[in-house]
Give the backbone structure.
Amino acid sequence: MNKLKNKKIAIVHDSFTQFGGAERVLFYLIKMFPKADIYTSLINDKFQKEIRKKSHGRLYFSKLSNFPFAISHPSFFKPFFYHYYWEKINLNKYDLVISSSHSFCAHFVKVKNKHLCYMYTTPRFLHNEFNELSWLKKPIVYKIFKPYFNSLIKKNKKKIQEIDTLVTDSINVQNRIKKYYDAKSIVIYPPVKIPNKILSRKIKGDYYLFFSRLVKQKGIELVINTFNKNHKPLLVIGTSGQEKKWKKMAKKNIQFLGFVSDKKIEKIFKNSKALVYASIDEDFGMIPVEAMAYGVPVIAYKDGGVKESIINNKTGIFFERYNEKSLNQALEKFEKTKFNKNDCIKQAKKFNEQRFDKKFLKKVKQLLND
């Protein structure tokens, strides 16, 4: 780290309007590089305060952050605003720019010296992955915007080729980058905090747990419909603009806790039977690893990055068809299977903060030495 002390570093993050896996990684990058200046496009007041607490650098963001609609509906601005904004940002004064790209365009910034991009996913709205901008996929809308989207894909390919070191969070996303942009990338799994002390868990647990952003892509609709019918107790942790809709759908056996701090989550994991994770084409999925770090097995849809973290029948159970029947069958199988919490913890440790720290710093130093 001594070699980095005198380096001017900037960390660029697409947008910060909700807290997810990408934001956990961003905070870890700030911890690694506390003097780095932080750039983002959209950010609400709460997250501005959080970043200023953790960072000794300056925070820069767009004036659009002052408009509540932009903060509550960032996806509407993604296809039409982000790339224009980022292309105007000149970061030539920095020795190293680390772009943290979870949706689109943070890596479009102007960089004279070294640029390392940590890419969590390719832009879902431009390709075939499930995304919340489903209105863009409607035939008439898609036909109108297709030429524009094709131009964005070409521009994105050019920008990706200009990156000095491209790092991604899973083999799943690495394959997408190769498929869509014919670019090579290095996989460094995101840093998951492993607790020093694991509270003793109830063998059977009191409830199942759903812990994620409350959007369709993360599987909340499937999970609510399934638990509405099987009447098993379910705790839901997470927030979104659609939260009222999901609460209205849910029966009394489903309880919503909203946002839960890291300090409180330990007790919730302690009393959980299992984490239910039904995300569609998950990029990597930090929450299943966090659950395993507490000795909690995971019932997950066998898709995307979770195939790289969960060991079927040892640290969790996969369901292979995205429907209520398949999920229920996995739940029934789970209740007949014994899981060893130490197997879960051991697996989670493969994705700990120390491994990320070591591998990421190695790439940073190699890049600066080049």
Q: What stands out?
A: The CA atoms of residues 17 and 71 lie 6 Å apart. The longest helix spans residues 139-162. The chain has a mean pLDDT of 91. The first strand starts at residue 9 and ends at 13.
